[in-house]
Amino acid sequence: MKHSTKSVDLLVMTWHQVYMSAKAGGYVRLREFLKRMPKEIKYIVMDNPPSLYADILPQKNIVIFETPKFLKQLEKKLFVVWIFLETIFAGIVVYQTGKKLIENLSPKVIYVPIGEFPQLYIPAILLKRKYPHVRLVVDILNYELPEKNVWLFYKRLRNSGSGLFRTIAIISAFYIGYFLTNRTINNVDYVFTVSKKLVLALKKVYKKTTIDYTPSGVNLPLSKRVVEKKKFLGIYVGRMSSVKGVFEILNVWAKVVEQNKTAQLALVGFVDENTLGALKKQIEFNLKKNVSIFTHVSDQKKNELLSQSELFLHLAKYEPLFPVIGILEGFSFGLPVVIYNMEVYQSVRKQFKLTDTSIYAVKNSDTNAAAKAVTDFARLSQSKKKEASLNVIKIAKLFSWDSIAQKEFRVINSLIKQQKIYD
Hints:
Layout: E1 10-13, H1 25-35, E2 43-47, E3 62-64, H2 79-105, E4 109-112, H3 118-130, E5 135-139, H4 150-159, H5 164-184, E6 190-193, H6 196-202, E7 211-213, E8 232-237, H7 246-259, E9 265-268, H8 273-286, E10 291-294, H9 299-307, E11 309-314, H10 325-332, E12 337-340, H11 343-349, E13 359-362, H12 367-378, H13 382-396, H14 401-422
Parallel strand pairs: 1-2, 1-4, 2-3, 4-5, 5-6, 6-7, 8-9, 8-11, 9-10, 11-12, 12-13
Helix pairs in contact: 2-3, 3-5, 4-5, 7-8, 7-12, 10-13
């Protein structure tokens, strides 16, 4: 709790899952936002150890909070019990820490950039009720069930190696969060989400006009090493999980290999032990010579793999926004993408002038169509591939983190100034 700042304008309340990678989309998004914090805003960031932002923020701007140490012993032995207790205790500690900071530093605005975490969202709502003069801004990154119904979601989790109790815990957590959000969201002063589609979904329960969206972003320009002879026909970059469609990609690649025996695929990103085991089992069955998995890679290595690839695959059946960070990184390296034709893609297609020549959107869950899109791309002439590559690079330039972060901070800064006038 030690810091040298006498007062602040902004209190950023964050928390991260210690068993996940800092490369997960929500954490990457917040890192990019914090890198672009306006100089005129005085701020404090709350985080649990080890902080994901210690390398980009001055030490005086970070306050570390911890849950009881005995919980750590449960993480590997009793994961479901641990995550339940960790959520409860984290919520309590977040509230207590936030309360002390508000009383000592008098922030004008509380900002919760990953609002689907109940251990952040619920304490923020309670703090807002206790200190109604403080403005509350919340980013809701996920709100809808990532399947048509709960049974399909259950089957997908189980098929990806998730245990019964862990699957039940994940689904229960979603519905609890969904219920709590719906009942309390009108306490929030400003809501950001990640797509027009989610704005419309949230407007069914959020009765204020103070709602907008900011999509994913990408750093531009990225330094790219031109590789003439590509090693991988396909690549996926991101969190490897059933929700993100990584098993769909393997099913598609098995069909691609039937047409092209030497086609190589790279899977890059964070993966938990259960999912990794299930992936390796599926690869061992019929794709041992065609699929390479890269976990815990540096940004330099990730960029190297992107530069060695021709086509990006992202076969999640549902996403709250389009494009996601991984696809944008692929675009910045000139990689066209094969995706399922999700509703959210159609909602932004005209807005960003997305074209079928560089984005292969096939019928949702149709692995045959996805495989055909890959093989059709592989047969294109070099001039056609170059044309598609230039198209997606243009799309990437529309999603600079600079402009996306500026949009949110413009709102936050406006609320800070309003509060200063009232004070």
